[in-house]
Amino acid sequence: MIGEIISIGDELTSGRILNSTSYFAASHLFGAGHEISAMFTIGDEPEMIGSSIKDSIDRADFVVVTGGLGSTSDDLTNEAVAQALDRPTTLYPEIFDKIKRSRRFASMPSLEKLAWLPSGAEILKPEERMAGYLLIYNDKPIFFLPGVPNQMRELMIDRVIPRLATWKGGKTSLVRQKVYKVFGLSEMEINQRLKAIENSHSQVSIGYYPLSTEVHVSLTVRGESHAETERLFQQIEMVIEETMGDSLYGEDNACLEGIVGQILHARKLTIGVAESCSGGLMAHRITTIPGSSNYFLGGVVAYSNDLKERLLSVNRKTLLEYGAVSRQTAREMALGVCVATGSDIGISVTGIAGPTGGTEEKPVGTVCFGLAAGGESFGFLFHFCGKRAMIQTRAAMTGLDLVRRYLLKLELPSD
Amino acid sequence: MIGEIISIGDELTSGRILNSTSYFAASHLFGAGHEISAMFTIGDEPEMIGSSIKDSIDRADFVVVTGGLGSTSDDLTNEAVAQALDRPTTLYPEIFDKIKRSRRFASMPSLEKLAWLPSGAEILKPEERMAGYLLIYNDKPIFFLPGVPNQMRELMIDRVIPRLATWKGGKTSLVRQKVYKVFGLSEMEINQRLKAIENSHSQVSIGYYPLSTEVHVSLTVRGESHAETERLFQQIEMVIEETMGDSLYGEDNACLEGIVGQILHARKLTIGVAESCSGGLMAHRITTIPGSSNYFLGGVVAYSNDLKERLLSVNRKTLLEYGAVSRQTAREMALGVCVATGSDIGISVTGIAGPTGGTEEKPVGTVCFGLAAGGESFGFLFHFCGKRAMIQTRAAMTGLDLVRRYLLKLELPSD
């Protein structure tokens, strides 16, 4: 189906807030096999809101509208719709009852506004206190979603995508969707490997979303029956899992630092990190996970050679002979951080993030890693491209991926 | 002036790329005193491109169009404009000469396309190899900018904003703009303090952009002459500087970690960091600055109490008596990291980032800092709100701001 997206709010047209909801909606609709022909962002101006919605639904098969559903004076979507689509607002008693029972109602009688919706509106999540409804106009669906990003995302995934999947003239087609998270393969490599599946199945859409150092791949399968959808989904999923191999680290809401944390926690193992060029980013990513204190003891950021010796017991001879950016130094850093923190596993990173400091032999982007655990230690050498910030991010995340690979006994790069 | 923004590209409507250029354009136009009534994002579809541009320039005082100016087959803006606005494309020989001289032309004859522009197009930066032109239609300006973010931004700031400032019927009004970067005051506080100036000067616009833990305030002054603009600008700037006081840490492209680095570098001082709840983020922010190895020696992430003792020499008695999250522990951490790294200055942070670990006495968001330098040491206590990631960010940035305040002999919070 061909759709249009309309975002409403002065905070968007004044550039105070980056419109990430349209992006989210577009990427998920596209991933589900729809085409977005246009996206509009307009201010809190009822005439413009009304005419935009009317024009869009005249052109497109469906429209998604976000924002302007709240209870303040600049929330004007419902009135604009009532006017433009000739659907006078009516009181929805089930919503009003909930509002009346809420504590905030006594001090904010304007909340009543939330219970007045264009006639014919079908509440998307009546069980929750969340704005958002569907209006059918000329047999086409218009979804009205709150501008609050997390509510909008929830309704998009739980209601809009499934509803559109079963829309076409009442055909009971069903949809199944999953996001696969991949580290260590490029978008192009993945696309080349998966192109064939997508071309040979009209019910299958695959979307590719490169995100910093990772690629997220979304699979959407649409079938006529639950059984058919499920069978096709499992068949394609098997191909995807096989194709991505051990570069596939998780699904849907998983993140690399979370996966590594889960494994460490489950095995009652602790980790310490020794960082040079990533400057603390690897430790920081580990500690973004609530409860990481269960397995993360601490780390050392040893930017200077002197500190690599003093805090991580790297041999001066190793530094002189192989340099600070070498597999040998990285290994000693990993061993050293195990001793310094008393952790079961040590991971280290030392490299040249640039823009200066590169040499012919070790150009900017040269990054070495060390991993120490259970009496063993390994050293790895990578070459990353990009600017300083990208090299630092790649260094931190590659370190985490090496730990994941070690813990799951997957293939490691050659030592 | 009232403007509209149109972004062109299938990569935007398919949700493959987040449209940050529209946001950038809107915030800068708004900051310069214009109003954006609508923003459109459309795919690479010439009819839609043409009719959108035509409709927008009929409604608005000016239009900014981004994207679709390149040399590949999906770059269709120029053809669409030629058709919709009746401005047939003509060959611009000065551009074609440059293209012919480029090395890539031999293998890519399609580059010639870049030299064919709608008749009447005025190249925005003829001295550089960069797409982007101005077309005047019914006496109104339409700016066509490349979709490449950094080129678009450069043209926006260097050409579009100044050009619009002097537009109105040939009046030679002049514009001066600056961004002030503030740490430690909320958007509302700043707004309340500055509202009066904005209301009393029609030539002055002030924009407020809260960005994670900071607020960026943009000042735009428009006058009839260079002298008048300059005089008014300096007058308002003085008020702003006085109002923000020492919370104003920098201007335009400055960042807090860069400012701290500059001072340390200029004074030939070194710094070491000891982190608990910020988990390495403070060290990481310091090392995002190229050349930070000149003043940053390293740091310790001591997540566990044991490591606070072992790596930072915090007294067990202090930990038992006052707890890990206390001014006392923070001070000892700061002193300890000076010893461990041999740095002139030590900054430490220890707190409760949540979601668990809070108590009645020390709720989630309680964060203590220690600062040690030149034989002195200080301890500070803050309460931050927000979720885990926000508390970690506030902790790291507040630590850096304390270092800035100490180095510049500004007021510090009470010990």
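Residues 256-407 of chain A form a domain with the Maf protein fold (CATH 3.90.950.20).
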